[in-house]
């Protein structure tokens, strides 16, 4: 079955996109959520593509180049990860703290290594309705993919996953009325919130079975290469590599996630904001991040600034905002990144 409606959560995030072929995990998840029935598509054609001329279909098929494999978590893994991350943040003094962290990181590592996944779609990762837990898993998974793209060895990728899972563990020491405040924080509340990196480091520093690199990554993930971050205002050469990777994943996930006090930015706008932060974020790691995010998956429909609807047929890892697309009415190929004649066109 192919679903003919998008399934969204309470924050508006798409859980299952329209046009997706349903598998047993998705059907089971829908039933558990109390969804008694859905609309499905009959036949083989996407309803949005029904009027595409045959010549254009042939062009699309000829030009199509599949995206890299994305990280995917089965529903059973998501359930384990969700339970595990909540246990960690609620039991920071537990003797099983490190063991539990390693178990979650192992699940994420398997997903990253499976099918040689080098891309991530955070809208498909959702493991919890609670922001801190969801955010920790999002950041850990994205950081691992960035690290893999950056060429780091498996052991470092695994440790970066642990760092990502624990990067906000210090928030367990922040009062709930500050942590979950629906409005913007006042100056005193914000100063307290900024202490979460120190609180996290203090939670971890006595745990001898956790690597020093991980502890420093947790402490420094809000540092900036221009020395204007916190808690220590460190320059680039003093900032831990894990922290530099986590910083980008952390900012991106925060931007695209709905919070009580703000609407989410689109993935495109979030990427453009990240790209503008060259004085604050490591540029080489930023390039690895840009090569790990797929904004316009091959096969999706977009609209160009010339008014024509088009289908994405190929992504350029070095230019993710400007894929190659085929106009649905004209059949024209628009290579937005490489064709000078497309320089004035943008995806709207």
Helix content: 40-55%
Sketch the topology as an H/E string, one letter per element: EEEHEHHHHHHHHHHHHEEEE
DSSP summary: helix tally = 13
Strand fraction: 5-15%
What is the β-strand count?
A: 8
Mean pLDDT: 88
Distance between the termini: 30 Å
**What general outline do the C-alpha atoms trace?**
globular
CATH class of the largest domain: Mainly Alpha
* Structural class determined from secondary elements: alpha+beta
Unreliable runs, pLDDT <50, ≥5 residues?
none
CATH superfamily of the largest domain: Hypothetical protein af1432
Largest sheet, strands/sense/barrel: 4 strands, antiparallel
Based on the structure given, which CATH architecture of the largest domain is correct?
A: Orthogonal Bundle
From the 3D structure, determine the CATH topology of the largest domain.
Hypothetical protein af1432
Number of domains: 3
Question: How would you write the strand order of the largest sheet?
Answer: 5-6-7-8
Alpha-carbon Rg, integer: 21 Å
